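Help: read this over?
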Amino acid sequence: MMLKRFLPKSGIDYLKPSIVVLFAVFIAIKAPVFFTINNLISVLSQGAVIGIASIGMSMVILAGEIDISVGAMVYCTGVIASELYLSTNNLIISTVAAVVCGGFFGLINGFGVAKLKIPSLITTLSVCNILSGLGSILIGSEGTLSAGERYKIIAQTKILGLLSSAWIYILLFLLFLIIIRKTRFGRYIYAIGDNQDALRACGIRADFTIIMIFVLTGMLCGIGGLVNTSRLGGTQFNISLGMEVYCIAAVVVGGISMSGGRGNVLGVFFGVFIVAALDNLLRLMGVNVYMYNVVWGIVIFGVVMIDILKKKQKARDLERQVFET
């Protein structure tokens, strides 16, 4: 009886675990080198930037919104941080600028969604185009920026066998878990995604919460931009653009519903690892780079389809219970 409580309640609930198991078996056969300790550590380090941005995407999706400017924010804040470091040779100024600029970009998104009532898809698409253009203008005609060796210490310092980029992600994720599970703000995020009107009826400022969600997402993207450029020792034209696809995949694979208000945020950590692992596997197998988008499109379509099937199953179960009573 104790075991039954932890088992999936319907056949659909077995789909994701089954796919993960098949994925692991496939890797073991096709690329056994993947499971070496060094490669697994490398996967976690490489997925750190996606992981940091996915924390923000988790909050946005839980609130029933979407942010497709995530990649552009990582790109633009990374360029700003690199440019400032080249001008000032000061890591603190570069770090603060990246976080503040990211928060400002998030504020624009939040204000557009919460106050102007522009759908989040349109708002973040507009900001995405603005920031991708702005980042490219700041880089200039050369298309690359090299920030030097000292700049790399932010993301490439080894601590207990892990790169600092991975530690930054882990610490931010732990902070995210505390906020979501232990604070009123975390409960409001779930409530907005579940029933925003009910939240307003209780006298809670839903608009302010939505704005703060986007601001925090922007700040996280600022940290992601800093870590990404530090990891690479600089930046280049259009790097990080399209990262939102990986973030959405990580969040949904992790178990958060695209309709908002439901999902276990702890699963996002494993979702990020799976996404980073799949990316690593594609590279190990030498898959054509143009196939990447095809693979990620199939992944997102598949996990969203599973989420929709689960919702329909729950609706049918609820309907059956009503008729039975």
